[in-house]
Write the structure tokens for this entry.
Amino acid sequence: MTHATITPLGTVSPYPKGEMNCPGYLVEYKGYRLLIDCGNGVSRLMTMPDMLNNLYVVVSHYHKDHFGDVGALQYASFVYHNLGILTQPVKIFLPDNDFANNKLAIVSNTESFTEYHYISDGFSFMIDDLEVSFANNLSHTIEAFMVKVQCRDFKIAYTADMGNTNLSHVAEFCKDSDLLICESSLLLSHNGNRARHLTAYDAGLLAKQANVKRLMLTHFWPEEDKNCYVDEAKNVFENTFAAEEMVGIMI
Ligand SMILES: [Zn+2]
Ligand SMILES: [Zn+2]
């Protein structure tokens, strides 16, 4: 049996607050590190320079709360490479279709020790025996990629930002996951636009439909009590908990 550790490094949006950062989830497996999204503040929870080694970074979509700290990692990689400490480039995976010139801005930063790979629908890559695969969730205001991380022993799925317009499509991708990391920007009481972002209730419905084992809620409003989201989702799906910075779980 092989295991991975999943540690949230950022759980709120659209801005970091106090000890909370914008989205980022660190998967550690066999000495490798996969950082799924790299929102504002995430890098301050990364131990440098150690965590730059064997590091793969995924940006799910080109909204700034999901890549705000990529620049910090680029500079860190540049400095530690120049010092002779970092010998392998940080691998950064970005959506192939640019939005608002954000891809261009990221890849044109020459003061970095990085290599770039581009995500399109159905793209996948391997880290040892861990497969990382992507699909457009077809549910957000811009193209946003769900991420699935799986090997023989476990499956983890991440929704990225999404609304409730294509739940069946997302449920199919996330089906039977041991852990679903799901955005829940809203509570029903917010009366927000659920076509753009999910309520915690919607996240619960998705977890149930996808038949996952556990639901980790994230992408919270920084001013809201996380327990309110968990309570709302539990009306539909019992095995729900809130992502907390630096509170890792083993799978
Ligand atoms: Zn977001
Ligand atoms: Zn977004």
